[in-house]
Amino acid sequence: MARLAAGQDGELAAALAAAMDGEVAFDDYTRHLYSRDASMYAIEPAGVVFPRDSDDAAALMSVAGRFGVPVLARGAGTSLAGQAVSAGIVADFSRHMNKIIEVDAGAMTARVQPGVVQDGLNRAALRHGLMFGPDTSTANRATIGGMIGNNSAGSHSVRYGMTIDHVRGLDVVLSDASRAVLGPVEADKQAGFSVTRTLAGSIYRELPDLLTRNAAAIATGYPRFWRQSGGYRLDVLARLAAAGELDLARFVTGSEGTLVIVTEATVALVPAPRHRVIAVGHFRSEQEAIEATAPALECDPAAVELLDRTIIELSRGKVEYRALSSILHGDPGALLFVTFFGDSLAEAVAGLDRLDQRWQRGGYGYFTLRAVDPAHQAALLKVRSAGLGLLMAASTGTRRPLAFIEDTAVDPSRLADYARRLRQVIESHGLTAGFYGHASVGCLHVRPFVDLAKPGQVAVLRAVAEQVRELVAEFGGVNSSEHGDGLARSEFNEAIFGPELYRAMREVKALFDPAGLLNPGKITGAPPMTQDLRDVAAARRPVVPLATRLSFAAPGATADPDARGGMLAAADRCMNIGLCRKSGAGVMCPSYMATGEEEHSTRGRAAALVKALSEPDPKAALGDERLHGILDLCLECKACKSECPLGVDLATLKSEALAAYYDSHPIPLRARAFGSIRTLNRLGSAVAPLANALAGLSPARRAGQRLLGIAAARPLPRFDRRNIARWFAGRPAPPARSAARSARADLIFLADSFTSYTETSVARAAIELLELTGWRVRLADAGCCGRASFSKGLLDQARRMAARLTEHLAGPVAAGSVVTGVEPSCLFTLSDEYLALLPGDDRAAALAAAVRPAEELLLEALADGSLVFPADGPLAGRRIVFHGHCHQKAVTGTAATVALLRAIPGVEVTELDAGCCGMAGSFGFEAEHYELSMRIGELRLFPAVRAEPENTVIAASGVSCRQQIRHGTGRAARHPLEIILEAAGLRDHGGFS
User: Fold this and answer.
1) E-assigned strand segments in 827-889
2) Where are the beta strands (DSSP E) in 228-311?
3) In the chain, which residues have pLDDT < 50?
4) Dihedral over alpha carbons 210, 211, 217, 223 (to 10 degrees)
C-alpha cells in the first residue's frame, strides 16, 4: 500500500473517530506497537482502531473504502508468518469484542466474538464437560478469530482436526462494508442467496461456476496430506458442494482476513476428556524419537509431541520450567510426549500399557516416564507448550531462530526420513536449528538460527526456504500445516499449487474483495518473502550509542562489535510471542491482565522502548511523555524476567528509562521520599506511637495525598518502636551450637528497610529459627540495599547504596559467610540488580553468589534433623494457602517455601496461582495507581483469599503482599517463617484471623 499523502492520515483518523464508537489511535507509538506480530516481519500501519461491535467493523470498512486504505483484522498478534502486520489500518478485536455470547451444551456449540481467548472459551465450556477441540500452544492468549483466520490446529489435531473442522457459522463484514451470515447452504436454497444485488449475492452466484471451471486443478493441485493450512480451501468447498451444500463459513476459515472480517462465530465443541495420562519417552537422539512415533500412533494416542535436546537444555535454565529437570532420567537427546485420554483412568492407563509394550518390543528409547497424576503432568505440559518461547530464548543479538520453514508437515510414516533430509538442508548452509512439534501428524516446528543483520544471510534464508519447499513436495507434504501463509510463504503458493489453481485463488480474492482492501499481499499477490524483514530494516538504521547507568550485558557475555547492544538489545530481545498477554495464570503481566491494552503488556513496553532507543537522539526520546505514560503502569514485579521465555526484564529497563527521564524532568518529591524509605521508616519507628496515631487520622492521609500523591484510601504500615536492631542487640544469647551444627558457615542476615521497622516479628522469627538450626547470625544493618531507589529510577543513589553495602559485606562474604533475609524484594536486589548497578565489581558478584533465601536454609536444616516439628503441633489439621512474592518467583521460585510449609505435620498446603497482588512496593500507595492496584488484586488474589474458611492460615512472603491482602480482604496474612516458628512449638504469634 502506498503511504497516505501528507495530512491525509489526520483526515482518515478523524473520519474513523467520527464513524466508530471504539478508540482510534494514529500516534507514532501505537503504530509502532502494532507494526509487529510474532514473525520475522515488521510493517508500520497507518493507524490502529479498536472496534466495539459489528457496527464499528462495518463503519471501519466503509471509511477504509472511501480512503482506499486496506484493513487488517487482528487478534492477539501472535501470528508466526507475518499475516498480522500491514501498512493499512490494523483493527484489534481483542480489546472489546471478546464476549462469549452463548454456550449451548445440548447442541455442543458456542457463539463467540472474535476476540475471545481460547482458554477463556474452554473455561466456560468445561462447566458443561466440553471444550474447543483445536488446542494451540498459545491457548492462553490466542483468540478464536485468529484461529479462524489461520485455520489453527494444535497438539491434539490427530484426534480433533483443525479449526476448519469446527466452524459452524460466521457473522462477517464484507469488503464493501455490507454484512453477511455464512454457513452451510443447501443446494435448493442457493438460488435465493445468489439473486440479491449485493456483494454476498455475487459471491454465491459466481463461486459455483468458479468451482466448475477449475474442477481439474482443484482435484489435482492440493497436496495430498490432510493437514493443510495454506491457500484458499477450494478443495473443501468443492467437496461440500458435491455433497449438496455450499459452506462459505468453512471456506473462509484459514483465509487470514483477506476475504471477510469475522464479527461473530459459532463453533462446535467436543467432550472434554475425563482423564489424561502422559508417557514421556526418553531417547538418545531426535532421530530415534521420531522413529518411535509410528509405533506410538498404533496405540491411538491423543497427541505425540517432540522436544529435542535444544529445548530440554533451555528449559533447565529457566526458573519457570526448572521442574522438568528433576523428573527426567539421564540425559535425553529428545523426548516424546504421548498423551492418552479416557472416560476412566483405567482406560487412559491402558493406552500407556500398550505403548510400553510396543516400545519395549521394538527397543525404542531407554526410559519411559509415566505421568498419571495431574499434578505430575503440570511441569511436563508447561514445558511442552513453551517450545517456541524456549527456542526464542536462545537468541543472541539479532541471531534468532526464525519462523520461515517451521510449519511443514509430511505423513508421519515418512517423518523420520524427512527430518533427516531437512536437517541436511539446514546444516549445508552452516545453520543450526531446534526441532519440536506435533510428531503425531508429521508437523515439525523447525527454526534455523539466522542473523539477518549480517551480510548474505537474507540470501541464505531464501535458499533454505526454497530447498525445503521442494523437499516437502518430494515427500508429498504441505508447506504450511497450521500457521498459515502470511508473508513468509505466500510468495511460494503459485509454485506449490500450480498456475491454474493459483489463478483460481486470485479469482476468489477478486470476487470477495474487488478493491483489495482486506489484508492484501497474503495468500495471493504476495511480495517477496524477504521484504519487510524486521532485523534487516533495523540494521539499516544507524544506532546512536547510549550511555546507561546500568549494565545490560548478560553475565559472562562477550560484546559483539557488530551487534546492537546494551539497552536497545535488551528490549529488542522481545519477539512478540505474546505470553505477556495471558490471563488467568501466572504473574506476567499484571497491568495487562487488568486493562487488556497492548501498551500495558511486556511486549508493548519493550516495543515502545525499541522505538525510543532507535531514534536519532535516544536520550531525548527516553524523556518523551508518551513513552513515560506507557512505562508508568509497569509494576516492576519482575515476572517477565522468568515468565517471558526470552527473559525481557522490563523492571530493569523501566528503571533505566526513568533515570533518563529524570535527566530532563524534575524528580518528584514522592519519588525522592520513597527512594529514602529506610530513613522514613526509621523515623516512624523512633516515634512509633505518635506516627501510628497520625497515620490513622483522615486529615493526615488527605494531606499525604495532596502533598505527596499517596492514596488516602490506602492504610499506612504500622511502625514498631522496638526495631530489629534494638531487638537483636538486646535479645538473650542464642543457644550454643552443637558439634553437629558447628560446620555451618556464619550467616549474615539482611536487616531490610521494611521488616526492620514494621512487622519486625517476621525478621525475629527468621533469626530465631536460623540460630536454632545452628547458624551464627550477624545482622547487616548498614543501610538501605537500594531497592526502593532502584525502582523509582534514582539509579545514582541506588548505586551508592549498593556500593556501601557491598563494601560492608565484602569481608564476611570473602570468608565464606552466607547472606539471607526475609523480604524478597530486598534480598534478591543483592543477587540481581547489584550485578547491573556494579558491573565488573568482583565483590558484588561474590555477594550475589552468597545470597540464599532463608527458606532454603531451613529446608536443609529439616533434612539434616536440625529443625524438627512436633507431631502434635498447634497447626495440625489446619489448611495453609500461600501467596508468593513476585520477585521470589522471578529469581528462585517458591518451591523451597512450599516444601517447608508442607513439612509441617498434619497441614494441607496450597500455593495460590493468583498473580501479582497489585501492591508492588510503592505502586499501590500512589494515588493515581491505587484503583488499578486494587483491580489487579481483585483479578484472582482477593477472591481466592475470600473463598477460604476463617480458620485457613494465609501465608505471604512479601510485606507488600501482606498489606494488600489485609486491605483488600480484611484477612491477616503472615510470613511463612512466622508460621514455621509456631509449628516448631517455639512461639505463639497470636492466632490466625
Assistant:
1) 879-883
2) 245-247, 261-268, 270-271, 275-283, 303-308
3) 1-2, 555-563, 740, 988-993
4) 120
CB contact at 8 A, 318 and 891:
no
Q: Using CA atoms, how far apart are residues 630 and 646, in angstroms rounded to an integer?
A: 21
- Helix (H) and strand (E) counts for the chain? 48, 26
Kindly provide the residue ranges of all beta strands, DSSP E only, lying in 18-141, ordered along the sequence: 23-25, 47-50, 71-74, 89-92, 100-104, 109-112, 130-131
Could you give the 3-state DSSP secondary structure of residue 423? helix
Q: How many residues does the chain have?
A: 993
In sequence order, which residues have a C-beta less than 8 Å from that of residue 355 and are 6 or more positions away? 279, 295, 296, 299, 301, 338, 340, 368
Kindly state the cell numbers that stand for 621: 526520546
Residue 459: CB atoms within 10 A of its CB come to 11
Contact 965, 842 (CB under 8 A): no
Give the closest residue to 758 by CA, choosing from 446, 605, 928, 975.
975
Quote the distance between the C-alpha of residue 930 and its chain's center.
25
CB count, 10 Å around CB of 690? 11
**C-alpha angle 519-522-527 in degrees, rounded to nearest 5:** 110
Q: For residue 253, which of 285, 277, 270, 229 has the smallest C-alpha distance?
A: 229
- Contact between residue 145 and residue 138 where contact means Cβ atoms under 8 Å apart: no
- Assigned C-alpha cell, 376: 505430575
Distance CA 143, CA 118 (A): 6
Query: Which residues neighbour 795 within 8 Å (Cβ) at sequence distance 6 or greater?
Result: 549, 550, 655, 656, 659, 789, 837
Cis amide leading into 589 (omega within 30): yes
pTM attached to this predicted model: 0.94
The three grid cell numbers given for residue 823, joined into one nine-digit string: 523480604
Nearest Cα to 141, choosing from 593, 784, 569, 769? 593
d(CA 522, CA 489) in angstroms, rounded, equals 9
Output the nine-digit C-alpha cell for 619.
Answer: 536520550
Let me know the angle formed at the C-alpha of 709 by 707 and 711, rounded to the nearest 5 degrees: 120
Helix axes 927-939, 959-969, angle to 10 degrees: 80
pLDDT at 387: 67
152: helix, strand or coil: coil
* Tally of CB atoms within 10 A around 938: 15
Distance between CA atoms of 403 and 401, rounded to whole angstroms? 7
CA contacts within 13 A on the Cβ side of 90:
30
In angstroms, the first-to-last Cα distance of the chain is 64
The DSSP secondary structure of 466-513, one letter per residue, reads HHHHHHHHHTT-BS-SSS--HHHHGGGHHHHH-HHHHHHHHHHHHHH-
C-alpha cell at 811: 569481608
Residue 40 CA, distance from chain mean position: 18
Cα 606 to Cα 543: distance, rounded to the nearest angstrom = 17
Give the CB-side neighbour count of residue 465, counting CA atoms within 13 A.
Answer: 25
The pLDDT score that the predictor gives to residue 378 is 79
Name the DSSP class of 518. Answer: B
List, in sequence order, every residue forming a beta bridge with 445; answer none if it has no partner: 436
Determine how many CB atoms are found less than 10 A away from the CB of residue 165: 16
List, in sequence order, every beta strand (DSSP E) within 75-183: 89-92, 100-104, 109-112, 130-131, 167-173, 179-182
Please state, in angstroms and rounded to a whole number, the distance separating the CA atoms of residues 156 and 330. 28
What grid cell was written down for 710? 499517596
What is the amino acid identity at position 15? A
